[in-house]
Amino acid sequence: MSEEKNTPDWQHDGNTVVEESRPILKKPRMFQVVLLNDDYTPMEFVVELIEQFFYKSRENATQIMLKIHTEGKGICGIYTEDVAETKAAVVNQYSMDHQHPLLCEIEPCNDDEES
Ligand code: TYC
Description:
The protein has 115 residues and is of the alpha+beta class. It has helices at residues 43-54, 58-71, 81-97, and strands spanning 10-12, 17-19, 30-36, 73-80, 103-108.
């Protein structure tokens, strides 16, 4: 099918040419929510937290927990800034409520793409 438009994206009234500007849509900056390793939080607590707050399967949550345990930190999800900040705050409050020192942080994602 052709992509003909009914109206041109410019108008001419004899003196002035008015060109409509195209909307510039920038992709939002994305942030990864990471959990940090510590020596005290039980593995089972971390796995259940990842399932509950990041909607991961038991298997995937276990893999992420083990990656954090061995490498020091691991990504649990990627969100827009507001969502990532809220997610980290909720997770940190939940860990504190359960007397665990587990820490959750956010980091900007590396953006290699051209904008
Ligand atoms: N290192 C903890 C332990 O041996 C387990 C753990 C995993 C803690 C991931 C925090 O983000 C974490 N019990």
